[in-house]
Amino acid sequence: MKIVQAIKKGDEPFVFQNSNQLKEPLVLVFGNRYMLESEHIFNEVRALFPEGHIVFGTTSGEIIDDKVLEGTVVLTAIEFEKSKILVKRCNVKDYQHDDKKMGTKLAAQFPKEHLKHLFVISEGSSVNGSALIEGIEHLNNNGCGLSGGLCGDDDRFEKTLASYNESPKEGEIVAIGFYGDTLEISSANYGGWTTFGPERIITKSQGNILYELDGKPALDLYKTYLGEKAKELPKSALLYPLSVKTTENSEPLVRTILNIDEVENTMTLAGDIPEGARVQLMMSSVDDIANGAFHAAELAMENRKSSPELALLISCIGRKLVMDQRTEEEIEEVKAVIGDNTVISGFYSYGEMAPFSGQDSCKLHNQTMTLTLFSE
């Protein structure tokens, strides 16, 4: 595996951290939404990698090595020497927001033989990540792994962009299939958030839209907990996500509120919140989040036969807001576990995709650090 990385700031050209001649590389370009809206960005990257498979995604912060950047574009180009990749795309507008069907159609484009892993970079503004994952896994009967994340837009929640081999645009979902018998790919996630306050029952919801808790308007109830911070919604919701437990014995899922509807008095979350589920508010501290990142890295490294050459990190914008000036500490915790020889790239997101520890099926998470580790 050969890897080169570069950083672009403002109108300056990309500055490469290292150099290498790559053949038909996978080129991951994660960056600030305003910069990826530039009409020149695709041609600029294409000129650097004429044979590259170029995948774009907007972020709420860019990760490269042990650094967290803002208002930049980070580029990581990877040549797999013993393996193959296949990249496919789709757009939410072509499926009338039937995200499960969209996921099924997307996954069906990948031949199953020798497919080791799918890594998904999805638009993050309107997609129901739970339904998308359910659709992708609907045809998954060969034990293929699945991980990835939802694109971000800092804490603006205006729009997110992604693309494959074209200029970034709204509504895109890009999936990268990794093929090869020598590939070793592992993924894991962990949060570090704790519940507080009373447990409430979801009495009315539809998909990822929450209407009522304990028979009362959910948004009104949530605002009473936030107090003065309610004026800053939906941004302030990132500091107080919901723990959602669908059954007595299920692992609780963390759900971030992506948007609110003052007219309908509802909240739109990043993934499904079924009626009958029990929810509680959550909060965290800097130390809890850093420790959570360390534990996520430990889980991703469990039972690996070889050291990872590449680590793709997707962490939640909510974690970044809590960490503030200390955000890089969670990346440093990850690096302490996976080692200095692993190339690190990634971004801060509106949602993370990975299985729970010890499980095969993927889930949509919020407020977690998610790692996908690669070696050939």
From TrEMBL:
It holds the Pfam family FIST. Residues 24-217 form the FIST domain. It comes from the Bacteria. Residues 218-356 form the FIST C-domain domain. InterPro entries: FIST_C, FIST_domain_N. PANTHER family: BLR0328 PROTEIN. This is Uncharacterized conserved protein, contains FIST_N domain.
